[in-house]
Amino acid sequence: MKIATWNIERLKKKKNLEAVIENIQKIDADILILTEFDSLVELPFYPFNVETKQLPKEPYNYAESERRVAVFSKFPIKNTYETYDAFTACCVEIETDLANVIVYGTIVGITGYSDKNFKSDLQKQINDIDKFSQLGNFCYAGDLNTSFADNYYFTHFAREKFIECFKDNHLQNITHHLKNNIDHIVISQSLMNRFEIETSEWNTDLQYSDHKGVCINLSIKSIS
């Protein structure tokens, strides 16, 4: 089972629309979290999806087709859950062929860590993580505006709060080691105990958006 996330930069480079879709097809994730999403990116090969609420035009000049987050799945979406902010985060329970997984897709700090609401939004998301991670296998993914492997882009406050939250809720940031990266996939330790996990990246030259895409592949551990 593959889980991937990518910030497509509000599709600012519309000439790359076809290339963005082609990259997504190549990754072939079973669960995909797109941030700074635009519905011009049509993905009919995903039969199930949930998006955050339609955004007001101001103050960021959003197009009608834009959403901050969209979660796509090849597996049925069993439940949806109300998050602290319907514009910024969405949470769903997905019935996969390996396990039911509660997926929380998000952006932390809609204009980066300098956003005036960054600290308060972070704390509210941590409150959501505390709540939803107790419901079962949990995956928290999206644009966290925080690097963990280097000084690429982070605040000490956010990094420390994330690390503490993940530890308290028995979560593992699978992508923490990736350099020049602020988009992450965090999963329950219970999933790590059951699966072998590999990570991969794409758009590393930032040709199609200003973010790399990241993916994890979970395969059942072999019994020796």
UniProtKB/TrEMBL annotation:
Report domain Endonuclease/exonuclease/phosphatase positions.
4-211
Q: Which UniProt keywords apply?
A: Endonuclease, Hydrolase, Nuclease
This protein's source sits in the domain of life called Bacteria
Alphabetized InterPro entries for the sequence: Endo/exonu/phosph_ase_sf, Endo/exonuclease/phosphatase
What's the short name of a Pfam family annotated to this entry? Answer: Exo_endo_phos
Q: Name one GO molecular function term.
A: endonuclease activity
Indicate the transmembrane segments per the record: none
| Name by which UniProt lists this protein | Endonuclease/exonuclease/phosphatase family protein
Identify the species of origin: Chryseobacterium oryzae
What is this organism's lineage?
Bacteria, Pseudomonadati, Bacteroidota, Flavobacteriia, Flavobacteriales
